[in-house]
Amino acid sequence: MDRIKRLYTGDSADGATKRKWKLLLVALFSTLFIAVAVIGIAASVRSSNENPITVRRLLQSHATIQSACSSTFYPDLCFSAVAFSTEAAGRISSNKDVIEASLNLTIAAVQHNFFAVKKLIADQGGSFTKREKTALHDCLETIDETLDELHEAVEDLHLYPKKKSLQQHADDLKTLLSSAITNQETCLDGFSHDSADKKVRKALLAGQVHVEKMCSNALAMIKNLTDTDMEIERRAMSSRKLREEEEERPASEAGWPEWLSAGDRRLLQSSTVTPDVVVAADGSGNYKTVSAAVAAAPEQSSKRYVIKIKAGVYRENVDVSKKKKNIMFIGDGRTNTIITGSRSVVGGSTTFNSATVGEPTTAF
Questions:
Q1: Residues β-bridged to residue 340
Q2: CB count, 10 Å around CB of 278?
Q3: Model-level pTM?
Q4: Residue 230: CB partners within 8 Å, gap ≥ 6?
Q5: Is it true that the peptide bond before 161 is cis, omega within 30 degrees of 0?
Q6: How far apart (Å, rounded) are the C-alpha atoms in residues 289 and 305?
């Protein structure tokens, strides 16, 4: 051991040997440090397993905190303040919980500032100018107002979202937090004149800025929460309104497209529609083909021209030109009246011309 001591303290002239023993001692201390760290981690895990708050729950809480804090201007401060608060971390399960925890931690910080100002006045009151004393007492007043506003915000959050409309909750909470932020600035503004004032300002700056940032984070989370909930409410109300309109709509109109007029709906529903012409493949109608009936229809008609197509298979491509307006086809059912053409893209036709019924926007 004496030899080790001499080598380490420089009693030996052999520099290489000294460096070798120094490395050995560093390695020894590093090993001891790692061992202590491992023991500490093991104790922490054992403690968390014995605690009713499981590791999984803590991880879930931290994920919720991180999500809520992501909407703030100071996310690192937001997360660290709440996540490492032993009182708050285990009770986090929603964004609302994160906001409440953040507000309570902000209240504690404001209280600390209050007592710091009181102590400053008590310890150095005799050395302050009249203006500095006035500014310090102004700080105490604004800090007291901040405490009232934050307590009111916590109470309002407890009632959220039941006692008032979401919009009213949002407006009240945002007003309270905005006022609290302004109070910190008002306190510091009282010490922005000469160099003596600025020394006092420097003594208060860190605490006031910390509270201002905490209030800013709470305000951002409140805005994100209320905006999200109001959007969900708006969509729910819109959906409910659509359902109510659908329920109020007469049964005779249900299921029809909006662009179809009421007259056309009645016409299609009527069991006694009188067609203008009848198409029948067996020759019992006015025409044997749909194309022939369309060709004979009036051009630029101002009223519906109804073509009744009897049951049968009509192997044709029906072209309805732009001049043939207000034409309506009525069949005997889609499984009974079938119109099928032979044009296809493979056969040389274009997609437009391969349609079974052309110009569908002018035909019904």
A1: 315
A2: 16
A3: 0.55
A4: 166, 167, 170
A5: yes
A6: 16
